[in-house]
Amino acid sequence: MAGFNIKSxxxxxxxxxxxxxxxxxxxxxxxxxxxxxxxxxxxxxxxxSYEIKFQDRIRNCEDVVLLxxxxxxxxxxxxxxxxWNTVMGDFVHGVExxxxxxxxxxxxxxxxxxxxxxxxxxGLNDELRTIGFDFHxxxxxxxxxxxxxxxxxxIEQLRLDLDTFTATHLRSLxxxxxxxxNAIAVQSDSQFFVTNQHRFxxxxxxxxxxxxxxxxxxxxxxxxxxxxxxxxxxAHVVARQAYPNGITLxxxxxxxxxxxxxxxxxxYTVDKAxxxxxxxxxxxxxxxxxxxxxxxxxxxxxxxALLIAGHPHLPSLTAFSHSRRICHRPEILAGAGxxxxxKCENTRGASWVGEWTPQVGFRDIYSGWDYPTSATVxxxxxxxxxxxxxxxxxxxxxxxx
Length: 401
Ligand SMILES: *[C@@H]1O[C@H](CO)[C@@H](O)[C@H](O)[C@H]1NC(C)=O
Ligand SMILES: *[C@@H]1O[C@H](CO)[C@@H](O)[C@H](O)[C@H]1NC(C)=O
Fold this sequence. Notes:
Blueprint: H1 2-30, H2 32-35, E1 44-45, E2 49-53, E3 61-67, E4 72-77, E5 84-85, E6 90-91, E7 102-107, E8 116-118, E9 120-122, E10 133-136, E11 141-146, E12 154-161, E13 166-173, E14 181-186, E15 191-196, H3 206-215, E16 220-227, E17 233-241, E18 244-251, E19 254-259, E20 264-271, E21 281-288, E22 294-300, E23 306-311, H4 314-327, H5 330-334, H6 337-346, E24 351-357, E25 361-368, E26 374-380, E27 385-390, E28 396-400
Parallel strand pairs: 9-13
Antiparallel strand pairs: 1-25, 2-28, 3-4, 4-7, 5-6, 7-8, 10-11, 11-12, 12-13, 14-15, 15-16, 16-17, 18-19, 19-20, 20-21, 22-23, 23-24, 24-25, 26-27, 27-28
Helix pairs in contact: 4-6
Bound molecules: 2-acetamido-2-deoxy-beta-D-glucopyranose (NAG) (2 copies).
């Protein structure tokens, strides 16, 4: 009898262990709502000074690419995100479509007001609603995700001339596997990795989208894509995980992918294409745990560190994002009464960014409520500078060391 009891408890424990591990993981995500509430969240500012720049010129810059030799930061900013965000599942119908997303070049060494240049996009006649993007400097290839309202998601391929600051549209890349493209990591002049952050798209039904966001099953994917000479795309799923968001090649053999809804970053080893296959395979290498926020975009710094930006407090992010469609629009805010103005004043979003190295682990760079909704951080230690860009923020945070 005793033997039977031990055996059945063992079986029970074996069955329960994954469930307990799963629930502990969910708890680690949910606990951020408590520990990172305003007033309780620790504040960090590990730099000499910072400034929030261009607040009256740009907002909702989700992604940044640093070009260290040119001392330029490329930014993609979409004012339309207040009303249309496929990631957060926010769709305000029946409003005038906002101005298109824009790409900017910020010459970060220059103090003059012209340091921020809007890049002229030539030959793209459709709407542009951008989240993540990437740039392959040797071939001048710019890839912009586009979540336009009509016609389905795609990736715009452009050639960016950094002497004239014009980007010429070459083609729109679409493929059934590019279903909800979030972030891109270019590998060469014709190959890239792209994350599809959900399996269930909010626009097609909120319940499954919501459950996927909160239960974090490993159903979404990372896709490897190759642009063929014909302009068509050859795409293959190379990894499945929960909420693949930011993506960056840490070096030639390691790909880092954020798992936002799990509060993790997964590192994968990139193996060369097996004989007969046209795409590389990914092998799980290690997982970065213990981040004090839900990771969004990932960037590989010139010194090799993995820069991670994220969202420390989801309830505030949701409230902040929902309020922007009023707070970001002076013409609507003016007619919304004093209560609305006060609410805009009091609704705050949090940011938290840091860097990770295999030697030291995670180190904080900035956390606080003065600059909201950090989505990306870039840094050039050698130039003593860094930038944080916020999903729903006005301007960008630029720091100096
Ligand atoms: C790439 O980065 C990973 C993680 O930091 C490291 O373990 C690996 O040794 C690096 N590989 C190369 C070829 O530098
Ligand atoms: C601040 O940054 C410096 C340089 O990156 C680093 O050496 C130091 O450990 C950081 N301090 C904290 C408290 O993270």
